[in-house]
Fold these 2 entries.
Entry 1:
Amino acid sequence: MSDRAGKPLRVALLGCGTVGAEVIRLLQEQRADFAARVGAPLEIAGIAVRRPQRRRDLDVDPALFTADAAGLVARDDIDIVVEVIGGIEPARSLILSAMSHGASVVTANKALLAEDGATLHDAADKHGVDLYFEASVAGAIPLLRPLRESLAGDTVHRVLGIVNGTTNYILTRMDETGAGFTEALDEATELGYAEADPSADIDAFDAAAKAAILAGLAFHTRVTISDVYREGIADVTAAAVSSAREMGCVVKLLAICERSADGRGVGVRVHPAMIPRSHPLAGVREAYNAVFIEAEAAGQLMFYGRGAGGAPTASAVLGDIVAVARNKVKNALGTGESAYAELEARPMGETRTRYHVSLDVADKAGVLAAVAQVFSKQDVSIQTVRQSGRGDDATLVIVTHSASDAALSATVEDLRALDIVRDVASVMRVEGEETA
Ligand code: NDP
Ligand code: HSE
């Protein structure tokens, strides 16, 4: 044991909102257990918020609240700083200052890690402190530590996840009730899943940030949000959801991180996709998250649970607090960043995908041949074609075999230019095993 053992560890919180308030409540309620698990009591030394005078229903001394976050992290008696403010600034400057004053940092801030994780990791390394961020991806689900530690002896090939609860709730409602996107979004907002401005969820910025963090850990490579191809769910139509159902599929917003075939690159993307109902991710309903990992020796692994909310997210933050506190007691450091592989981020066009394309066409001779010609020109092989309706209102639904995303998107462009195609009603990628 180091000479630290038994001495209280002083924890500063930055933020006391949805997540921070639950962290404080649980830290206070389970004080004795945490002291036993860590080997030293955890004391709250200060709580920085925007509005320190605001009434909060917490069992803490009101004098601990301060608006001076910069002053709090610069104190030399703080051992651990927990950042749950969110956003890029002032969170980044506060974390950097905390590290430079010797504090280890726990954060749930996916936006910052995906934008500028490198700066934080470099600073942690330079100052000899821990940087833990389990809560930043998929809330309560223990996922980053398994990737960082348990799978450190394996080679990960692919990570496929549902990492945004709001969009999964919307897509579940569209699938199960036939609701349109706007109706399902209103429901998600009423239930408090979607933010007042839900664009971070709907336009998939939140999922893209999480995908960047997952890819970095899975492939031992620095990946930022700018490396992630991103499409949100606002254009997912009720017709596409119903067409997926007819094919035995369900539409999900997927975060996909995969090693390239030559092993030297990594492709990271977030977009809606149809997956077979038999896929383990297809049964992940409502606001739940799940992440499916394919590794060389381990094979397939699946992690499932609550990806958001005060208490579930606080569980992950507290797990990190206990881990870094134990390290402090032992005067040791946990597992740091591993980015030695330096894989190159590959553009979306190189990714091999399959497309589901729905076209409004007239039902007359030569239409199918002309459409097939466009696919053939880009060397895209068609797996199935289904036609419904007659006369002026026919719909052609085409599912392709796998091809480069560049060839598939060029095919769609050419289809749009065809006179006989009245409308390209929907285009969606299809993930999961090919059936033929
Ligand atoms: P909230 O908006 O609920 O809380 C933010 C807190 O930060 C508030 O207490 C606010 O003070 C304080 N704050 C804001 N700006 C400043 C500032 N400049 N200086 C000091 N304090 C400030 O956020 P959440 O709790 O929802 O999220 C926190 C982090 O956790 C984010 O990074 C988020 O992405 C992440 N996260 C959240 C999840 C969730 O389900 N909510 C799930 C997973 C991760 P005041 O109370 O006075 O307004
Ligand atoms: N808005 C996010 C979600 C919160 O819906 O999953 C958790 O990061």
Entry 2:
Amino acid sequence: MDRIRIKGGRPLNGTIPISGAKNATLPLMIASLLTEDTLVLDNVPHLADVILLQRILNNHGVDVMLSGKRSGGAENSGQTVKISAANIVDTTAPYELVSKMRASFWVLAPLLARMGEARVSLPGGCAIGTRPVDLLIMAMERLGAQIDIEGGYVLARAPKGLRGGEIVFPKVTVGGTHVAVMAASLANGTTVIENAAREPEVKDVADCLVKMGAKISGAGTARIEVEGVSKLGPTRHSVLPDRIETGTYAMAVAMTGGDVLLEGARAELLQTALDVLERAGATVSATNAGVRVSRNGVGLQPVEVTTAPFPGFPTDLQAQLMALMTRAKGTSHITETIFENRFMHVQELARLGARIALDGQMATIEGVERLKGAPVMATDLRASVSLVIAALAAEGETIVNRVYHLDRGFERLEDKLGRCGAEIERISG
Ligand code: UD1
């Protein structure tokens, strides 16, 4: 199993290219199941989760062609993926695959909408809480699906096709909104989705679906209206930049000091997080080329932050912010409202010398003068990268074990940081 070795204490200076968003790429690839025509996606990040989803789609009979970088494309540009679901040969998504990546459960919606049936394994346990799928199932039922649970599988049927309906989410859910929009696109009649997730990735997927011929309005707001069509066609779409990767590197720069251009990043996708970084003492500016983050000399100020659905502070940046606050001059509070168990990084950060107390959903972080390197264990995607951020500022050497979590969501992390002056290397095996 690969590990990452980091020697802390170096500022970051230079340019970090921001990849296409994982959380848009996955639902976009899944949306390919809605059409028998080819969907071409550009700016797809090189990530383990993309490869895994490719395998899952292959299992349904979908052809996925990953091409390398485009000729003439920049060295770091994302890959182009051509996906053709002309012939769906199997409407079952098995446990062995769905349990490895929760988002693959979302295939339920396009399979049901296009084929009139789907059999998808329940995703099972997850390291960051129970993460149920009840609201996704509710959404499909509101569109006329008949749902049974058998042997750990959701059996969804709509032999005469789905019909438009009103879906009111009692809680904001990104996955719920994705599946509702996908399914409604091929349903008979009009669907209204209330309390929809407003995340930029929801809008990106909806934009792609509209190019495929779907009739969707209001994506990016809390009320989305979808007028079903009988068929969707081919299109080409470029994945929007990853706001979580952007925020992660922005926090790394705030942690180490230095000056980095996050190339291709779009500030409006993470304004709340960038505002928090400015309050903490970083300088942030949006330029034509991306987002520039620097911190020179000034100490880090403590902050009070509560995670919330977009446009609030993203839960996916909570662990990284906590790492940053371990070095603040004073006491910070971070409250997690989206996932009940997303504090697994706390014990590992403590191994580096952080002082963090947990009380229910709130973490109190008392800033310390120095962190010290140690062997630590990556537990989930965002927790792992928070350890990297802490290690970049820790004295001495940190070894981050189990970095396969990082590879699921961060493309060439050690390379991107290394080029900006970090002493970081991957140890294979
Ligand atoms: C997506 C993101 C993930 C991010 C999360 C919240 C992808 C691939 N993943 O995950 O990175 O952390 O949004 O921004 O885009 N819930 C229910 N019942 C359901 C569904 C969700 O109770 O049927 C709850 C969840 O337990 C959680 C909250 O709703 O407390 C939000 O979850 P949701 O937005 O659905 O997260 P994902 O779409 O799984």
